[in-house]
Amino acid sequence: MRQWIISITTAILAIGNSMAMDPAQDARFTDPRGTDHTFTFQAPDTLAEWEARAELLRLHILAVNGLWPPPEPCPLNAKVFDTITHDDYTVSKVCFESHPGYYVTGNLYQPRNGEGPFPAILNPHGHWGAGRFTDVEDGSIQARCIQFARMGAIAFAYDMSGYSDSQHFPHRFSCPEWELWGIHPMALQLNNAMRAIDFLQDLPQVDPERIGCTGASGGGTQTFIATAVDPRIKVAAPVNMVSGIMQGGCICENAPYLRLDTNNIEIGALAAPRPLLLVSATGDWTRNTLQNEGPMIHAVYDRLYAQPDRLRFVQFDAPHNYNQSSREAVYAWFAHWLIGEPALETSIPELPYQVDPTEQIRIFPEQGPIPSDLTPERLLAQWKTACQAQQSALWPDSEAALADFRRIYQTAFRRVLGVETISPDAVVIERVLSRSVDGVSLHLGWNGCVLPALWRKGSSQAQPEQVLVLVHPDGIAGIDSVPIADHVAVLAFDPFLIGAHRPPEGADRKRDQGMFGAFHPTDDSCRIQDVLIALAAARQLAPKAEIHLHGTGAGGAWALFARGVVEPGEVSAAQIDFAGFALNSDQDWIDRMNIPAVRRLGGIQTAIGLAGPEPLQIHGAYVNFPKQPVLRLYAGFNRRDRLTIE
């Protein structure tokens, strides 16, 4: 992605022997990024550039969290009950379904004074052991909810997954099968936050245009992530979390692929131009906010939107917290920007408060079973069915439907795969050996990636009329099995970690450190990117030739996915041999094509659909290959003759 070490902008074909590029120095072997890496953010030059980038990042966050295309929301079946009445506010128990049978649980704090509709504030909590019931010196969820209600706002405090009353899933879990379908802790919690907004907006006493959100630590991450993607949040205050030196220490803050080419500073800036308060502390990873993160985000508010007053960043001399001083700064921010107080104060004093006993405000006070027979396995089965039904409803069989399908899926598919399309002149092509009977050995370079490659032509000395890009699980070694006709050239290459594409001794992708999967693509994503590099190189080597793509074995899936993300017509024809890939087996996907959320977005079927009715031969397809939808696609364009499935 764009943060890899080498940025290549000029394409050359080096003649003679040169070792300027070395596959062992491929930047992907040594990319150091992780949750404790130091990140920066520089606002682009123009508002148009920023808004295009912001739109892409919002789509990216939703897609890697399994929330694109937007899932059909289930009925909330919300219940507000067992209200406790105090002098100036009430506390009620709440539960509603964010997925069928999956309950979001929490408490609703409402003002008793004033006339509605009232603004409403989401209050996700962080990793305090008592969750939403926390009431200690360094942080009190109940204190701020009581204060918000007294100020004239409705406050909703709800459980993180695995905390207090939310026991469908443990808080920390990781399952490759679920991740294929976009299910992981951050995905569940982001969906819960968005459904919590649905819940609040459905309440007649809530002004649906005045929704805010605040939380600290892990709740701070939930705050700025939800604010980034959901424009219904009008005011936000993430506390002790937006940082350039720590991106989140829990798996619930690190969705797979979340930060391939971004970081929490840039994600935090997605709130702009909505009012944003950054609260930081001297004793944690937000200690540099006044000098670094705050001014970086300020450039977006000031230089691009000309609304510098909508951003404030403050710091308190304290350890990691959401203590009274931090809360009082937040009260002032929400009083002005959400509740409507004309003056913007630095802080508003917190009134004395008394929390209700935990057993009186728990949804299930005896820690009994949630009133649902939902299990993780059943939720996954429901989710698979819903995803497949959604894709079926959107499947194209006409020009208009194909345009819609590409609009919905194409960019999201690229982001989930963790790849970028490449122009031919962006690839550096370097000859490393003179011509031999085997062809010309090359190195292909792009954006820090360096691939060993072999260019072999048929007997004709003329420019080839057709270039066959060979994608083989054995890399260049597989070229021997491919006959080469006159006027045809073959470009073979060693994909990531295959053949001569190996790291130097001692180098290692530290997959078990620093929430690796949030910052780095899987090996299979890297190999799809390598196919895209080879396709661009082929176009540079033979600008007038037809490009044909031939993938076999594991390379068949890499090739088909690459074909799906390039623009229509860039690949003239494709021949794909799946060699028995069981396309309905999650375990086969894990073994052969392990990319988080790839099945959520339709996998092989979406890759075929995005390319439209271009010439395609499929071999080695199991009975679970999506034959009927693919036939319908080609028949809808009267192009059935372009498709072979056997």
Kindly state the mean pLDDT as a whole number?
92
Our count of domains comes out at 2
**Which CATH first-tier class of the largest domain would you pick?**
Alpha Beta
How many DSSP helices?
17
Parts with pLDDT < 50 across at least 5 consecutive residues: 1-19
Which bin fits the share of residues in helices? 25-40%
Q: What Rg, in angstroms, do the CA atoms define?
A: 27 Å
CATH superfamily of the largest domain: Alpha/Beta hydrolase fold, catalytic domain
Q: Biggest sheet: strands side by side, in what order? A: 1-13-14-15-17-16-18-19-20-21
Biggest sheet descriptor: 10 strands, mixed
Residue fraction in strands: 15-25%
In a nutshell, what does this entry contain?
By secondary structure, the protein is of the alpha/beta class. It is built from 17 helices and 21 strands.
